[in-house]
């Protein structure tokens, strides 16, 4: 569909926005996500201290001590899940933003500068071939557990995919007649990048970002399960679940509340992503995995 | 509908058939051990799981009975000279290694020599020893140079490193290098080709083992293999382990988390009981080299905040599996006493706050290492952080895995350069039964991480090791405890018990701090 | 064709070199010292130092790397620090469960996801489509271990139709026991793949269905089933196969968790245990091994394109 390429869609285009709202999965996903974000932002001000211990009051069922009951150290589960929303969303958004940013830069370079292409892509191939979880575990044991380490450990394996995506777009767009014309007429590289290439990457990257965001939150939970997640002092959904996993059959609510919160969040993020993909440009569907 | 039910029935029958143990008449005990057996040399490593492996395939000269008294095991008879300086041991008849060769006094000498270079108690014995010689096939003579009252206790020690007797060729291995031959003379034979590190270990009965005639009592007495085969399968996941036991895929679960107990004990096919009478002792360790814990008054203030009930409830849960214990020696053992234990008995954040205010504490942050992969210690760390903060300390909790913690705790560097202020661990009761335990050392050069320095404590410990009468030993042990609390060496967090869970057709378990697998039968 | 394969195989060498160097440096910079873990609670500083020397960990990182590389050239991945066994032997012991679990997962996922995705595309916009898509998004939203616990609880503990845990070899214990034990782990691990593949299948088939040749085929009066199978699916195969290739990395990650939950003695657990204990040779060897597998599988997938799409030639 070469005729579609001339008027590349961009995020700020008002018609795109209208279509996005009209698309029901974006609408529902977006609303749910907004509600979760409000809870994450405001919730913690209204609840008990999520790290205050009360060992004598441990493993209380929902209702008796706080909405969701208490965990094995007697901490208020409702408060922890609310505070966990902050941490998990932070992880998701930070990972998405960072990997898109770094991947975009590397992808543009690889796609545009032939000399560096081979080097960058070999390194990316290498990174991509190491299983993300193993890399993350190794990195976390390297720098010690902290929010920052967990985020960067999840970012690094995500970068190669973004680089590949951006690079493939650059390579395609470069061949377009209007870009070739601009190059021929002596337009400077930064300007070509900014005017012609960047706009074409925005839509697929937004969609990619939602997937990365969702999978980052899941990966954080899995790292917690494997004992290499965010420090237990910071309540994240992954942490709460991994700490509560021994109690799965005794006090299942410890794992279910954060589990449901996580599933709902990832679900709405994915809905937004799918909706955007269908709406923004059908062409993207092909370049996405 | 009919169809589906039939299918389910069919599946269920096949499932039952498949889950049944090998039908060859061979008796098998399927065990979930407390850890993965990573290493097969119980002298090279102190890991408890390697020690338990050692007890399966090796034998010892002496071994501890239920009342913590060493009894002869491989030794038939022994004598001590009048002055207590010369010990003569004669080996039992019929002792054979798994390859059929007899156990001789030369094997004993070589094995003890290797152990004496690695084990703390062994090193003390050797530093007081003049010579260890084999006189004939079956007789070994140990001559002391300086008086030492704990010769038999050392040879019969129940926990790591245990002086296991190996064949001479194996025992000649450099003590800092792993052995590669796993021939022992114990009641079970290790199956090298069936070992899957990280997953499975297989032992078979040693047909030619000659057990003592006395009944089994802790590590002592007759070790009679009651099953043909023992299979250890390591489970990384507690939930799955519990389900496997309840589904009958496993017979014995060595250390289920205490929080699984309500489910396990409500199952009529499962027996839950505490086998280790001493349990474990929670331990909060300060680094005595650096501020703020270089000041005994600050350490004592921190100890005053440690309310044992809160630690035990948070980490262990059900109160039937723990008890407070204000002695540094496990409660219920000969030297247990509450002498000078007032600080730990306080258990009050307010009192700690007051005591801390009276010191020169300047707000230096306490770097607390939290091992997130060890749930009990992870919980201890969070409770300590909570309490110390309430008492007015600045606390920085650093999360890490146990492997990182074990290497970082060995650093004496200042905190800013990778050092530390505090961490938690536990000792099995048998390891801290008297003042000789390395946990109680007051010598920063030979002592344990945290490096307390106290002459008076060392004097008491040395006097204990030389004492020969029970009264004198008790007096020196009490003196050591007095000093330990005086200088606020460590916080004691109470005594807790990890029960074992097994299917009701398993019989004959031995009460002991170490899990043994002889004497057990499967009906 | 041959030239292309040779080129691709050669190009894996620099990639593997990147992986090897990266993993090695990463590990040696990590805190945590296997010597301290071995020495245990009673050891003095001198003991730890002696063990470190014995293990060759006292040498400089560079010397250690050269030594490891030297071994690598001869096909020697080194020896585990803890169990004292060659890493190649350890990998050999654990290879079968992981390989077969991966295989059953891919077969099961494809068998479920491709028909589902095709159906969803064929009935695009219908209730069937929505349900399939909801499931596929849902598959991305549940952590693997939670799913595993739920399956064990329902299938093994309540209904008692499948064993809780463990692995039985089809070669030694027979195909029946193997299937009994592999079913739950396969289902657990498959959910995310079914989500991934059915989504991709739907998108690709949807696109192909709008092409002219489908209309032509319809006009010729061919049956819908035949159209879907012969034309639509075959032409949609390339992106589907690609997504399976990408999924391999995901699969290896998922295996780590699944093997823990179902107590399967495979490679995933081996590497996890090794990381926690800092058993460097095992971690290095396995990381290298995993990336090698990943590269090979993706090479095979690239070559399979010529089979699905005759227009692609190398």
Q: In words, what does this structure look like?
A:
The complex is a heterotrimer of chains A (289), B (523) and C (314). By secondary structure, chain A is mostly helical. Chain A contains eleven helices and no strands. Chain A has one domain: MetI-like (MetI-like fold), CATH 1.10.3720. In chain A, helix 3 runs antiparallel to helix 4. In chain A, 55% of the residues are buried. With 523 residues, chain B is an alpha+beta fold. Helices cover 30% and strands 20% of the residues of chain B. In chain B, a hairpin with a 5-residue loop joins strand 3 and strand 4. The N terminus of chain B is likely disordered. Chain C has two domains: 55 residues, no CATH class; 215 residues, MetI-like (MetI-like fold), CATH 1.10.3720.10. In chain C, 48% of the residues are buried. Chains A and B meet through loops of A and helix 7, helix 10, helix 13 and strand 18 of B.
Detail the topology: elements first, then pairings.
The complex is a heterotrimer of chains A (289), B (523) and C (314).
Chain A: H1 14-22, H2 24-42, H3 77-112, H4 114-129, H5 132-143, H6 147-175, H7 177-184, H8 189-225, H9 237-244, H10 253-280, H11 284-287
Chain B: H1 2-19, E1 28-32, H2 48-57, E2 59-60, E3 62-64, E4 70-72, E5 75-80, E6 86-91, H3 105-118, H4 120-127, E7 129-136, E8 139-144, H5 151-155, E9 164-165, H6 168-171, E10 188-190, E11 200-205, E12 229-233, H7 238-246, E13 252-253, H8 261-265, E14 270-273, E15 280-286, H9 296-305, H10 308-315, E16 322-323, H11 342-346, H12 349-357, E17 365-371, H13 375-390, E18 394-400, H14 402-408, E19 422-428, H15 455-466, H16 470-486, E20 490-496, E21 500-503, E22 506-507, E23 521-522
Parallel strand pairs in B: 1-12, 1-13, 17-18, 17-19
Antiparallel strand pairs in B: 2-9, 3-4, 5-6, 6-8, 7-8, 10-11, 11-12, 13-21, 14-21, 15-19, 15-20, 16-20, 22-23
Helix pairs in contact in B: 3-4, 9-12, 10-13, 15-16
Chain C: H1 2-29, H2 34-39, H3 45-54, H4 61-73, H5 87-122, H6 127-139, H7 144-158, H8 175-209, H9 212-219, H10 224-261, H11 267-277, H12 280-308
Helix pairs in contact in C: 1-12, 5-6, 5-8, 5-10, 5-12, 6-8, 7-8, 7-10, 8-10, 9-10, 10-11, 10-12, 11-12
The strand count of chain B comes to: 23
Q: How would you state the average pLDDT of chain A, rounded?
A: 81
The CATH level-2 architecture of chain A is identified as: Orthogonal Bundle
User: CATH class of chain A, please?
Assistant: Mainly Alpha
């Amino acid at each position: 569909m070469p005729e579609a390429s001339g008027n590349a869609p961009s995020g700020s285009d008002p018609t795109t926005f209208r279509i996005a709202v009209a698309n029901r999965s974006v609408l529902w996903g977006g609303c749910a996500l907004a509600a979760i974000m409000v809870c994450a932002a405001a919730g913690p001000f209204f609840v008990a201290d999520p790290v205050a211990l009360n060992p004598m009051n441990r493993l209380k069922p929902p209702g008796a001590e706080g909405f969701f009951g208490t965990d094995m150290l007697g901490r208020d589960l409702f408060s922890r899940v609310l505070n966990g929303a902050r941490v998990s969303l932070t992880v998701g958004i930070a990972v998405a933003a960072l990997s898109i940013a770094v991947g975009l830069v590397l992808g543009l370079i690889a796609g545009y500068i032939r000399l560096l292409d081979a080097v960058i892509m070999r390194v990316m191939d290498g990174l991509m071939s190491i299983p993300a979880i193993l890399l993350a575990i190794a990195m976390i044991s390297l720098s010690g557990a902290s929010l920052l380490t967990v985020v960067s450990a999840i970012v690094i394996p995500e970068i190669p995919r973004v680089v590949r995506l951006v690079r493939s777009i650059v390579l395609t767009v470069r061949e377009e007649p209007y870009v070739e014309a601009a190059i021929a007429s002596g337009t400077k590289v930064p300007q070509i990048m900014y005017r012609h290439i960047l706009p074409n990457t925005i839509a697929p990257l937004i969609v990619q970002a939602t997937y990365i965001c969702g999978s980052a939150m899941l990966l954080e939970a899995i790292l917690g399960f494997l004992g290499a997640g965010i420090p237990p002092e910071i309540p994240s959904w992954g942490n709460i679940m991994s700490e509560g996993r021994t109690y799965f059959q005794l006090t299942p609510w410890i794992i279910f509340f954060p589990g449901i919160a996580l599933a709902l969040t990832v679900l709405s993020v994915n809905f937004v992503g799918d909706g955007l993909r269908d709406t923004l440009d059908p062409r993207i569907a092909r370049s996405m995995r | 509908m009919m169809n589906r039910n039939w299918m389910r029935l069919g599946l269920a029958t096949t499932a039952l058939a498949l889950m049944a143990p090998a039908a060859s008449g061979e008796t098998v005990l399927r065990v979930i051990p407390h850890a993965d057996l990573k290493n097969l040399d119980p002298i090279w490593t102190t890991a408890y799981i390697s020690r338990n492996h050692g007890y399966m395939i090796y034998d010892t000269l002496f071994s501890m009975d239920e009342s913590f008294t060493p009894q002869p095991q491989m030794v038939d008879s022994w004598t001590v000279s009048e002055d207590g300086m010369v010990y003569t041991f004669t080996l039992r008849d019929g002792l054979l290694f798994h390859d059929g060769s007899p156990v001789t006094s030369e094997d004993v000498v070589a094995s003890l020599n290797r152990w004496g270079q690695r084990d703390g108690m062994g090193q003390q014995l050797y530093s007081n020893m003049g010579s260890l010689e084999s006189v004939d096939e079956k007789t070994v003579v140990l001559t002391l140079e300086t008086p030492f009252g704990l010769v038999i206790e050392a040879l019969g020690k129940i926990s790591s490193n245990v002086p296991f007797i190996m064949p001479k060729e194996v025992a000649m291995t450099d003590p800092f290098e792993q052995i590669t031959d796993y021939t022992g003379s114990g009641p079970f034979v290790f199956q090298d080709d069936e070992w899957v590190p990280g997953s499975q270990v297989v032992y078979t009965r040693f047909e030619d083992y000659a057990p003592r005639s006395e009944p089994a009592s802790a590590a002592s007495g007759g070790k009679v293999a009651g099953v043909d085969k023992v299979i250890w399968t390591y489970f990384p996941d507690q939930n799955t382990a519990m389900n496997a036991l309840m589904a009958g895929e496993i017979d014995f679960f060595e250390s289920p988390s205490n929080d699984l107990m309500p489910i396990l004990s409500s199952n009529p096919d499962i027996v839950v009981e505490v086998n280790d009478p001493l349990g474990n002792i929670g331990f909060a360790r300060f680094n005595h080299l650096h501020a703020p814990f270089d000041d005994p008054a600050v350490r004592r203030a921190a100890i005053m905040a440690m309310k044992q009930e809160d630690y035990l409830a948070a980490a262990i849960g059900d109160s039937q599996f723990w008890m407070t214990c204000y002695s540094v020696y496990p409660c219920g053992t000969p030297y247990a006493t509450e002498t000078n234990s007032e600080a730990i008995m306080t258990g009050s954040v307010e009192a700690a706050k007051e005591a801390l205010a009276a010191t020169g504490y300047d707000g230096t942050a306490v770097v607390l290492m939290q091992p997130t992969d060890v749930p009990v210690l992870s919980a201890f760390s969070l409770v300590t952080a909570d309490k110390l903060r309430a008492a007015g300390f600045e606390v920085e909790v650093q999360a890490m895995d146990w492997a990182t913690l074990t290497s970082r705790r060995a650093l004496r560097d200042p905190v800013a350069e990778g050092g530390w202020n505090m961490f938690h661990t536990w000792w099995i009761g048998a390891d801290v039964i008297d003042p000789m335990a390395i946990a109680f050392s007051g010598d920063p050069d030979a002592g344990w991480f945290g490096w307390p320095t106290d002459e008076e404590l060392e004097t008491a410990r040395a006097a204990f090791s030389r004492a020969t009468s029970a009264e004198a030993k008790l007096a020196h042990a009490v003196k050591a405890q007095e000093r330990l609390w005086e200088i606020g060496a460590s916080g004691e967090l109470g005594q807790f018990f990890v029960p074992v869970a097994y299917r009701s057709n398993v019989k004959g378990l031995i009460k002991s701090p170490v899990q043994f697998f002889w004497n057990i039968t499967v009906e | 064709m041959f030239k292309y394969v040779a080129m691709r195989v050669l190009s894996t060498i620099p990639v593997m070199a990147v992986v090897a160097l990266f993993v090695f440096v990463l590990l040696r910079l990590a805190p945590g010292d296997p010597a301290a873990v071995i020495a245990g609670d009673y050891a003095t500083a001198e003991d730890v130092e002696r063990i470190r020397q014995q293990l060759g960990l006292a040498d400089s990182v560079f010397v250690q790397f050269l030594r490891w590389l030297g071994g690598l050239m001869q096909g020697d991945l080194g020896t585990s620090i803890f169990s004292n066994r060659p890493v190649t032997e350890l990998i050999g012991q654990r290879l079968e469960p992981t390989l077969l679990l991966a295989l059953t997962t891919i077969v099961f996922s494809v068998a479920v996801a491709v028909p589902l995705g095709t159906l969803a595309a064929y009935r695009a916009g219908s209730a069937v489509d929505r349900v399939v898509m909801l499931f596929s998004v849902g598959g991305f939203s549940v952590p693997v271990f939670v799913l595993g616990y739920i399956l064990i609880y329902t299938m093994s503990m309540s209904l008692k139709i499948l064993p809780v845990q463990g692995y039985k070899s089809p070669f030694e214990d027979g195909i029946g026991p193997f299937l009994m034990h592999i079913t739950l782990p396969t289902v657990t691990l498959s959910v995310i793949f079914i989500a991934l593949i059915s989504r991709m299948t739907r998108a690709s088939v949807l696109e192909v269905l709008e092409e002219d040749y489908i209309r032509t085929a319809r006009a010729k009066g061919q049956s819908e089933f035949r159209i879907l199978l012969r034309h639509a699916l075959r032409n949609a195969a390339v992106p589907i196969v690609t997504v399976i290739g990408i999924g391999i990395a995901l699969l290896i990650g998922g295996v780590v968790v699944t093997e823990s939950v179902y107590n399967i003695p495979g490679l995933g657990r081996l590497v996890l245990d090794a990381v926690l204990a800092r058993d460097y040779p095992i971690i290095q060897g396995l990381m290298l091994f995993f990336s090698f597998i990943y590269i090979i599988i993706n090479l095979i997938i690239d070559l399979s394109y010529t089979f699905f799409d005759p227009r692609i030639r190398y």
